[in-house]
Amino acid sequence: MHILNFISFQIHPSALKQGGIPLVACCISAAEQANVPITVHFDHGSSKYELVEALEMGFDSVMVDGSHLPFKENISFTKFISFLAQAKNMLVEAELGRLSGTEDDLTVEDYEARLTDVTQAQEFITETGIDALAVCIGNVHGTYPASGPSLRLDLLKDLHKMSSEKGVYLVLHGASGLSKELIKECIQLGVRKFNVNTEVRKAYMECLRNPKKDLIHVMASAKEAMKAVVAEKMHLFGSAGKAW
Ligand SMILES: [Zn+2]
């Protein structure tokens, strides 16, 4: 997951709640059978309970999301899980700053305050020993406004300069809807993992909403639609054709 040559199946806490251990086992099995490197990742773990549980389920990596906590509490929360996860050879991603679902309803000050601060990020990395940092540079979960994303690439550059000295990779959540050029720039500025959910989900849902065939074929074509999006993204991220 932490280099562009990897794909990662990411399981969100709500999916884990729904699918439980069989879902994780399915993902691990599918990853093992693939002829390209695939890891299985627990995404946005925001409570100690769910993260400690996830540590025992066979994930390759976890994301510790303490972004709802005050800075110092985020450090101790992330440090605690990071210590446990790394003892099991799992990679740890954590978030600093606060990702918005949407930019609506935020004042400019609120919006700015949610961006990842370089000085804080440096302290955060040193204190927690994480492997990857999810940054907030204007990226959002879900859909970008019609005007498109406005990412603070200057901030990304500063974050990269600092994090690369510490051997920590940068992660960009909310990568659905980023142009080819923007993806390329982000890669150049140190992003090594892109999280894409909205576009994959949309392709699947659209097939189900407008069924052209009977149920069995609808499911098959929905899967094909998702695969097409993933193939396109792999090409964009430079991970296409990278087999074991
Ligand atoms: Zn995310």
UniProtKB/TrEMBL annotation:
<protein>
    <recommendedName>
        <fullName>Fructose-bisphosphate aldolase</fullName>
    </recommendedName>
</protein>
<dbReference type="InterPro" id="IPR000771">
    <property type="entry name" value="FBA_II"/>
</dbReference>
<dbReference type="GO" id="GO:0005975">
    <property type="term" value="P:carbohydrate metabolic process"/>
</dbReference>
<dbReference type="InterPro" id="IPR013785">
    <property type="entry name" value="Aldolase_TIM"/>
</dbReference>
<dbReference type="GO" id="GO:0008270">
    <property type="term" value="F:zinc ion binding"/>
</dbReference>
<dbReference type="Pfam" id="PF01116">
    <property type="entry name" value="F_bP_aldolase"/>
</dbReference>
<dbReference type="GO" id="GO:0016832">
    <property type="term" value="F:aldehyde-lyase activity"/>
</dbReference>
<dbReference type="InterPro" id="IPR050246">
    <property type="entry name" value="Class_II_FBP_aldolase"/>
</dbReference>
